[in-house]
Amino acid sequence: MAGSDQEITALATEDAPAGVLVREGDYGDKIGTVEPGGAEFIPLHERHGKPLQLFWTWTSPNLEFATIFVGVLAVAVFGLNLWLALLAIIVGSAAGSISQAVLSVRGPVFGVPQMVLSRLGFGYWGNILPAGLNSITAGIGWFAVNSVSGAFALNTLTHLPSAACLTIIVALQIAIAFFGHNLVHAFERYAFPVLAVIFVIATVVILAKSHLGYQPTAPPFVGGKVGGFLLTTGAVFGYAAGWNPYAADYTRYFPPKVSKAAIGFWAGFGVFLSCVVLEFAGAASATLASNPHDTPTAAFTSHLPTAIADLTLLAIAIGAVCANVLNIYSGAMSFVAMGIKLPLALRRAIVALVFGVIGFIVALTGLHDAGARYENFLLIIAYWIAPWLAVMFCDQFLYRRRSLAEEEGLLFNKQYANWAGPVAMLVGMGLSIWLFSNQSEYVGLVPTHVPAFGDITFEVGFVITAVVYLTWHAIAGNGARGRATAKAS
Q: Which of 240, 285, 304, 422 is an S-S bond match for 126, by CB 3.0 to 4.6 Å?
């Protein structure tokens, strides 16, 4: 992962602790400079920023159509009325936002990205499992999903060919992500007031026109309201928790002594508020009749006055860029956190460029049948993130009394193994998907026979993974992670 001129620090200094790889180069708070390095420790003299910036960093990416469409699915696909949809949206968003808050506070303490912190629960090489999954789902999957929604909006607004609109959206996203951390934060900040004003107006108009007492006459989901509620909760959680593997990526530049409470609040509140408002707007729009031949973005904006509709389409395009600069940046960060050695000063930036090109190609294939693809993608995200979170939280609880110096010594130690993490995660994913998955590509054993179960894969996956991980460590005692600690010392 590190360049050939880098070595793990042998002694602690005023700028870095012992046992870490320090990111090379000077960066500071310069916006127009390409961020050097990859997934290494951020030296203390480079630290900057305030917790409040997390509010727009995590609000702006959700002010886009992919968020709205989660709410549309709740009513149009999962067969809920507006108020059950709102309850599922609140529950799922709260769960994903709380985990976002908890993960974010560790960034300034350790000064490394989220997927480097993941090594504590998975070991250096075992971490390839979650880091690899996140590099694919973030840098390619989410990137393609949001690029398609942005391209649809630009196509409806300008009537340019869809492929041309997609090219414009992707080029802007890649450029911002290539420059890196500081430009990403700045872009989210300046986009926030524009997106917030437009989407608040659009939401008010949609809610004023919607049928608040709407009841699906023939729920499209065979499991009925209970199954539809569980499916919606899973999809909503998958959307909010989709940001969890990025959490520390955008807090690691903060000084270590910055308020943890402020970091957790602004990170979690930004995700929660934006998801709930826009997903409820999407659910409300699904109670209104629309042209079945319209693209999803055109169907949503067709209920708005022309001027507001055009502004909303522009906001959807900008919001897609806001989401994807985070997706491609963190996707690249997860890739370099896998331990692959790239002796290049701009390794993170170059990986972001490559992911952008791959994501563009994938997005081209997603311009058709986007709705069904998105529904499946949301559920699949939850399938792996919930077991990953179980390992992260269980490990943090078990070793909460371990010193910071000991933890830091494990992060870049290639000899450090914690196989309980990847094994527990694979068991949790395998069993929960086999038993409870409920999507168009695969229906698990339980919902095949009892459709009312909906899809509780992420809940079951979390519990199974936690039980396996905690049991492994209870049986092995300190040896499960203690032997690795001894190797590191």
A: 422
pLDDT at 424 over 70: yes
Token pair recorded at residue 47: 């630290």
Nearest one of 148, 154, 64, 152 to 359, comparing CA atoms: 148
Specify the range with the lowest mean pLDDT, choosing from 52-61, 68-77, 91-100, 276-285.
Answer: 68-77
Residue 108: half-sphere exposure toward Cβ, Cα within 13 Å: 22
Residues whose CB is less than 8 angstroms from the CB of residue 158 and which lie 6 or more positions away in sequence, other chains included: 165
Angle between helices 224-241 and 65-76 (to 10 degrees): 170
Calculated CA dihedral for residues 33, 34, 37, 38, nearest 10 degrees: 130
CB 76 within 8 Å of CB 286: yes
Judged by DSSP in three states, 123 sits in strand
The two three-digit tokens of residue 347, written as one number: 């390794």
Backbone angles phi, psi at 157, to 5 degrees: -75, -45
Q: What token pair was written down for 181?
A: 């951390």
CA dist., res. 326 & res. 252, Å (int): 15
* pLDDT, mean of residues 253-260: 95
Distance CA 70, CA 85 (A): 10
Cα maximum dimension of the chain: 69
Q: How many CB atoms lie within 10 A of CB 404?
A: 11
| Neighbouring residues of 360: CB distance < 8 A, sequence distance ≥ 6 | 144, 147, 166, 167, 170
* Backbone angles phi and psi of 305, in degrees to 5: -55, 150
Residue of 439 and 408 predicted with greater confidence? 408
Burial class of 245 by CB neighbour count within 10 A (0 to 12, 13 to 18, 19+): buried
Q: Which residues contact 48 (CB under 8 A, 6 or more apart)?
A: 28, 29, 253, 254, 255
The arithmetic mean of pLDDT across residues 133-147, rounded, is 81
pLDDT in the model for residue 65: 87
Q: What CA–CA distance (Å, rounded) separates 432 from 42?
A: 38
Q: What is the 3-state secondary structure (H, E, C) of 248-275?
A: HHHCCCCCCCCCHHHHHHHHHHHHHHHH
Q: How far apart are CA 260 and CA 266, in angstroms?
A: 10
Write the DSSP assignment of 415-431 as a string of letters: T-B-THHHHHHHHHHHH
In this predicted structure, what is the pLDDT of residue 489? Answer: 43
Return the H-helix or E-strand segment holding 213. Answer: none
**pLDDT higher for 173 or 295?**
173
- Give me the numbers of helices (H) and strands (E) for the chain, helices first please: 21, 0
Q: Is the pTM of this model over 0.90?
A: no
Lookup result for tokens 């303490």: 109
Phi (first) and psi of residue 417, to 5 degrees: -125, 140
